[in-house]
Amino acid sequence: MPAYYALAVSVGLLAVLDTWIYVGPLATTALAGLVWISFIAWGCHFHSGGGAKGTTTAIVCMSFGAIVGMLAVMGASGPLVGTGVMAAPIAVGVGAFVICLASKAPLLATIPASVYGFASVAGPILLAGKTPQEAIGPVILSIIIGGIFGFVSELLANALTKKGA
Fold first, then answer.
1. C-alpha distances in angstroms, 12 versus 9, 19, 84, 159, 160?
2. CB 161 within 8 Å of CB 58
3. What is the domain partition of the chain in residue ranges?
4. DSSP letter for each residue of 52-89
5. Which of 47, 37, 43, 59 shows the shortest CA–CA distance to 138?
6. What pLDDT, in 10s, does the model give residues 23-81?
7. Which helix (H) or strand (E) holds 125?
8. DSSP 127
9. Can you tell me where the transmembrane regions are (predicted)?
């Protein structure tokens, strides 16, 4: 089939599986409700060029960003708490600064991917009341799952694509 349809079929079928994993087997675990992070990482795989490089970039940069985000939340509720309403904005600014500086390292060069991870860790903290320490592991596991789904969806789409004679 044409590559356009092959990718649509691949992503559509695997989206069912990815979502089912989170609402089925993982529904009663620390990963419950984090399917959105998996989808962000999946998209990040393609945004980062696909293939092994796209998967590596998605997983490494998003995980790094999530760790920076976790530390920013801890800073806002810790050392920066005395700055009042400015604690969170300052912590976010410092986190963004760190992400940009870290992009000098080739493995962390994709700033948007790190920002996706930074933002992703906020969900379980703000919406589910998790501590930063409770949130980081499930977030990184969801990033890994999403990166793998990106890689597999690309392989499946390639397998379904009709090759020219």
1. 5, 11, 46, 15, 13
2. no
3. 3-160
4. HHHHHHHHHHHHHHHHHHHHHHHHHTTTTGGGGGGHHH
5. 37
6. 999 999 888 889 999 999 999 999 999 999 999 999 999 999 999 999 999 999 999 99
7. helix 111-126
8. T
9. 20-42, 54-74, 80-100, 107-129, 135-157
Look at residues 36, 12, 10, 11 and name the one whose alpha carbon lies nearest to residue 23.
36
Rounded-to-integer distance, Cα 6 and Cα 74, Å? 44
Contact (CB, 8 A) for 108 and 114 = yes
Please give the structure tokens belonging to residue 28.
């009663």
Q: Which residue has the tokens 């933002």?
A: 119
Contact (CB, 8 A) for 61 and 117: yes
116 within 8 A of 63, measured Cβ to Cβ: no
Q: End-to-end alpha-carbon separation of the chain, Å? A: 13
How far is Cα 63 from Cα 143, in angstroms, rounded to an integer? 7
Q: CA gyration radius for the chain?
A: 17
